[in-house]
Design brief:
8 helices, mainly alpha, globular, about 180 residues, single chain
């Protein structure tokens, strides 16, 4: 039954990411199929054994939202992933379950966001857009906030990509550092 939840989560994330990209608004009703299937297939033994981790993760996600680092749909998405898929075995590389799957999703999302934030700087360093006398070249077109203070890089589309990467490969930091 976990495969149904994984696929439902991914389809829901893709549709929510599409809505986020085009309208900057994700209605709460979009999450209804995921909530219904998640409740029907919830493994209470796993949820109760990971209850402290799930609560701590949701609180940390709320803090990110409180400081306007992520939006409301991002909080809902990560909270539902934490509640309904607390553990998962990566499909491609890995035979043992990840310790806490939502953390792998958050780490993969953070790594993708880091690449997006750093790539304009690296591009400008490679193309050497300014003279050497002025120091580091500025990052062109990398204002990540619009005139209203909203983030221009939407987190939810990156989260959808990171979710599928986490399902396939798990946590890249755990692979690099040999942590299982």
């Amino acid at each position: 039954m976990i495969n149904v939840i994984v696929w439902t989560t991914w389809v829901t994330l893709v549709y929510a990411a599409y809505r986020d990209l085009w309208t900057r608004f994700v209605p709460v009703i979009i999450w209804a199929p995921l909530v219904v299937l998640g409740i029907l297939s919830m493994d209470l033994k796993v949820v109760f054994s990971a209850a402290a981790l799930i609560c701590g993760f949701i609180f940390a996600i709320y803090l990110l939202s409180h400081y306007k680092l992520i939006g409301g749909a991002d909080v809902i998405a990560l909270s539902l992933i934490a509640l309904f898929i607390p553990t998962l075995t990566p499909l491609v590389c890995g035979t043992i379950p990840l310790g806490f799957f939502p953390l792998a999703v958050l780490i993969n999302t953070s790594l993708l966001v880091l690449v997006i934030f750093i790539s304009p700087f690296i591009r400008n360093m490679v193309t050497n857009t300014q003279t050497q006398q002025q120091g580091f070249p500025p990052i062109k077109n990398a204002s990540f906030l619009d005139s209203h203070g909203m983030q221009r890089i939407q987190f939810l589309p990156i989260l959808a990509i990171a979710f599928i990467l986490s399902v396939l490969f798990g946590n890249p930091l755990a692979v690099v550092f040999g942590v299982s």
